[in-house]
């Protein structure tokens, strides 16, 4: 068991069981790059303010760079016996450069160090996730353009409602993911303040320059309050909330993919590369990627509850409970990135059965609203038109007819205002084309939406 950074006060070692329970090296070691980078900036600031000599800072920075290179090359494995990544880095540095390495922790606590490492790590993870979301939105725009005029039934209550285009449907999810990008970027802005220099909770008596380290590490500013800098993790909660919404959107889309790929719908067929089979039923082609995405949304939501519950009863400042933040938020980011990594190509490679979609749109009287609008155009109040068409639909169902196959005499049973031009009014293509108001489902509007989203994406 390696020596603890806090060993001076204690007369006996931590028990093996307590050490394993207390240690975080198994999950915080992924922050090694951020920990070493932050330490380099700290050492350079210590020299600039005269707290250590320039020669000592050069030795420390050189040693830290060497550790970073050796970890990344595999030459120096991270010691799992260390309590955390901070302990490992400091002990390895001292082993390499001697007592000068012990000066690195001057004017710094593990409290502000871990807060720094976490913000740097989550900033990178956020940027990576935003890139994946942008790829997904671009892919949806391309698919929507290809199917801007592909007619399908739109649903409410999972009942066929009105005719829409597949392009419109895809662009609805593009809008959701675009907002997800905005949420992550907004959270990143609020997170991008530097806690380094907060110390354990009250700052430090050394004449440090917190603005220097903040600038060196790409932060907008140092955090204003040292207590807040080390003791809050609201940025973890906010990021996880944004990640939960991403998974919620992917889960909703997954549910539709699962339905659409079933024999009952058969609107799409997933590529073999994104489907699995059955161990006993040779005919099966299962949408497991979509099902896993739907299931993993619960995992990310659970992490959000973990973070909220962990924080809700904590007095200021730092408490060990806060060690629970990393596993939760890291897992959420890992899950979302993994989901986006397979979800986008799954959608991109799926085959769309336009004929089957159109056939489904011809059933279920989804042009009934257009039929009522036809009567409104003839001067009938909408509520009266609605009632007349409702009675017409009931008649058609009872007699095995559709609005398209019903005779004009059938129509006139319910309103003398019906004429032969009603058939053009209820044509599916016409129904979709006439829905041309801003944001609606007509092909022209879908293409406009694609252009608007693509433009927004450039600045996201």
Oligomer: single chain
Distance between the termini: 48 Å
- Could you name the CATH homologous superfamily of the largest domain? Fumarase/aspartase (Central domain)
Q: Can you tell me the CATH class of the largest domain? A: Mainly Alpha
**Strand-and-helix sequence, N→C?**
HHHHHHEEHEHEHHEHHEHHHHHHH
Backbone structural class: mainly alpha
Spatial arrangement of strands, main beta sheet: 1-2
Helix content: 55-70%
Q: What number of structural domains do the residues give?
A: 3
Nearest-integer average pLDDT: 94
- The stretches of 5 or more residues where confidence is low (pLDDT under 50) are none
Architecture per CATH nomenclature, i.e. the level-2 architecture of the largest domain: Up-down Bundle
Strand content: under 5%
Largest sheet report: 2 strands, antiparallel
Shape: elongated
Q: Might you state the CATH topology name of the largest domain?
A: Fumarase C, Chain A, domain 2
């Amino acid at each position: 068991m390696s020596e603890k950074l806090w060993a001076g006060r204690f007369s006996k070692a931590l028990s093996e069981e307590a050490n394993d329970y207390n240690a975080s090296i198994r999950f915080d070691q992924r922050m090694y790059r951020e920990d070493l980078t932050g330490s380099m900036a700290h050492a350079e600031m210590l020299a600039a303010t005269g707290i250590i000599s320039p020669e000592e800072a050069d030795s420390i920075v050189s040693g830290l760079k060497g550790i970073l290179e050796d970890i990344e090359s595999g030459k120096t494995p991270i010691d799992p016996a260390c309590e955390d990544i901070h302990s490992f880095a400091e002990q390895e540095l001292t082993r390499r450069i001697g007592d000068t390495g012990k000066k690195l922790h001057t004017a710094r606590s593990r409290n502000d160090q871990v807060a720094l490492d976490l913000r740097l790590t989550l900033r990178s993870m956020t940027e990576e996730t935003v890139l994946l979301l942008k790829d997904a939105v671009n892919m949806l725009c391309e698919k929507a353009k290809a199917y801007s005029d592909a007619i399908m039934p739109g649903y409410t209550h999972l009942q066929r409602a009105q005719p829409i285009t597949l392009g419109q449907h895809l662009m609805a999810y593009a809008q959701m993911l675009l907002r997800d990008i905005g949420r992550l970027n907004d959270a990143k802005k609020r997170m991008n303040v530097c806690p380094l220099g907060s110390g354990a909770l009250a700052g430090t008596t050394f004449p440090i320059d917190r603005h220097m380290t903040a600038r060196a590490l790409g932060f907008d500013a140092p955090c204003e309050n040292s207590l807040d800098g080390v003791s809050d993790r609201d940025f973890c909660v906010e990021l996880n909330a944004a990640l939960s919404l991403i998974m919620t959107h992917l889960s909703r889309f997954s549910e539709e993919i699962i339905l659409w790929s079933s024999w009952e719908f058969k609107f799409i067929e997933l590529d073999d590369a994104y489907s699995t089979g059955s161990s006993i039923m040779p005919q099966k082609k299962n949408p497991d990627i979509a099902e896993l995405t739907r299931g993993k949304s619960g995992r990310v939501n659970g992490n959000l509850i973990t973070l909220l519950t962990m924080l809700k009863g904590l007095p200021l400042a730092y408490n060990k409970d806060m060690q629970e933040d990393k596993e939760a938020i890291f897992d959420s980011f890992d899950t979302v990135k993994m989901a986006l990594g397979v979800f986008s190509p799954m959608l991109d490679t799926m085959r769309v059965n336009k004929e089957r979609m159109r056939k489904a749109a011809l059933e279920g009287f989804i042009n009934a609203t257009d039929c009522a609008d036809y009567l409104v155009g003839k001067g009938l109040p909408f509520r009266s038109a609605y009632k007349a068409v409702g009675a017409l639909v009931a008649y058609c169902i009872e007699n095995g007819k559709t609005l398209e196959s019903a005779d004009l005499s059938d129509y006139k049973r319910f309103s003398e205002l019906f004429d032969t031009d009603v058939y053009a009014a209820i044509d599916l293509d016409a129904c979709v084309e006439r829905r041309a108001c801003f944001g609606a489902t007509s092909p022209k509007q879908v293409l406009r939406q694609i252009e608007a989203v693509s433009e927004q994406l450039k600045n996201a």
